Amino acid sequence: MIKVVAIGSVDIKLLKDLKKELENTFGACKLEESIALPYQAYNKSRKQYLSDLLLKTLEKIEGEKILGVTDVDIYTNNLNFIFGQAYVNGKCCLISLYRLYTENYGKFLERAVKEATHELGHCFGLKHCENRNCVMSFSNNIFEVDMKSRYFCEKCRWLLENSISKT
Question: Domains in the chain and their CATH numbers?
Answer without folding.
Answer: 2-166 (3.40.390.10)
